[in-house]
Amino acid sequence: GPARRTLQADAAHRTGRRLTTVLGAAARAVAAPADGPRRTVYDAQNGTVLPGTRVRGEGEEAARDATVNRAYAGLGATFELLTAYGRSSIDGAGLPLDASVHYDEKYGNAFWNGEQMVFGDGDGEIFLDFTVAVDVIAHELAHGLTQYTANLSYFGQPGALNESVSDVLGSLVKQRTLGQSADEADWLIGAGLLTPRVEGVALRSMKAPGTAYDDDVLGKDPQPATMEEYVRTGRDNGGVHINSGIPNHAFYLLATRLGGRAWERAGQIWFDVLTGGELPVDADFGSFARLTVAAAKARYGEGEEQEAVLKAWSQVGVKT
Ligand code: ASN
Ligand code: ZN
Question: Residues in domain Peptidase M4 C-terminal (predicted)?
Answer without folding.
Answer: 150-318
